[in-house]
Amino acid sequence: MDKKPKIIYRVFLAVMSALFLVLTSGLALAQTNADTNFNVNVDANINSAPDAVPSVEPITTEIDELNQQIEAKRQHIDELKRQTQIYERQLEGKQNERASLQSELRILEDTIGQTAVALKLNQAEIESLQLEIRRIERDIVAREYDIAAHRDELASLLRRLYETDQTSQLELVVQEQTFSSFFSRVQNLHALSTSIEEALNRVLETKRKLEAGKEDLTSKQTALDEKRQELEGQQALLEDQESYKTNLLDATKNSETKYQALLQELKQQAASVDQEIETLIQQVNDRLAARGEGVSFVQPGQLSWPIDTSKGISAYFHDPTYPFRKIFEHPAIDIRTAHGSTVTAAADGVVAIARKVDWVKNSQGQILWSAYNFITIVHGGDLATVYGHLSQVNVSEGDTVKRGQVIGKSGGTPGTAGAGRLTTGPHLHFEVRVNGIPDDPLKYLPPG
Q1: What is the DSSP string of 364-381?
Q2: Is the pLDDT of residue 207 over 70?
Q3: Cα distances (angstroms) measured from residue 80 to each of 32, 111, 225, 231, 238
Q4: Given this model, what pLDDT does residue 301 score?
Q5: Are 381 and 360 in contact (CB under 8 A)?
Q6: Share of residues in the chain with pLDDT > 70 (%)
Q7: pTM score of the predicted model
Q8: Where in the chain is the domain with CATH 2.70.70.10?
Q9: Class assignment of domain 256-443?
């Protein structure tokens, strides 16, 4: 039985499968290039004659140049990180200084400087990611050219295999003058099969690297989007810090005496608000218990976010960088948002406080400064939530509200109605209290 045709037939099937993989990957890569703004005609590359396959050398040179730019950018990033660490050490040394206007201004200067460096760092990381994305894109094109070249190599080997397949073993013996030449012909056939296998392996390896490159490209693009969003948050934070410095200087007229008076005023205001919240929460709970009423107990992690979080959190619970940390520990999270954004109830509950005063005025009715508008909602299980710096209040004390119900509008812009005496910028102040005591809201909210 003639085994050679069967061997050749199996090799033929393997080669055809390889060609199918090559053509399929080429079509898929053409779509990838469309998605990444490439202007490379993959089908034309793959279906071109061997001498029409574009040279990969210019792309390789470009990739080398991109690698050099990426390395330079990484060195710049490392330097910015070192500057950030210097600011962190300086701030740590100043946190325990006596509360004074000059101390606060020095801390503000370092905080603003640190944020400015963080902004530059983020921008450098974005530029580095853009370079890495460009490098991956060019590497994908280079791999496509490799596949085109491997395809032509396989096609050439296939033609040779087909020509060999047209001659039977008997014809080979008759055609060849000596056994040595016949044996050499058989060895050539074996070498041809080995070459086909090696070419197929090269195609498959190139295809694997292409798939890995596409995955890496997707990952880098996702990281780039996240960095851009982070950059927006840092820009807003820098604006808030500079705004707070301006407001502080305006409120104190650069006077230490006025600064100390302001501290006392803010401490008294914070203590008064805290006591009011604690008292009214207890009163509502007692009233509901006496009537046998109540709302569903809210487990940790089961509150809803009261406002859109796409702009991020500007201050955390007991945040050591909080501007008023020398007056009181920050009992909430500050969610950065545009002034006038919709605020909703984080869970079902009963409104204990719906404070809308807007302005603090003197006995003659003249506006002295912005008042602090806020809402407190009592939920089940001795849990309550507080929503502060509101520009609009849409509920009244004693109202029953449902999760997601609109209760007001955000505020916090310095000098606007309901924003409070001093504020760092537009945001929602959001507290969670258990038995009247503030707790970290992030423990009760889903990941956001």
Answers
A1: TS-EEEE-B-EEEEE-BT
A2: yes
A3: 35, 15, 21, 15, 17
A4: 61
A5: no
A6: 76
A7: 0.66
A8: 256-443
A9: mainly beta
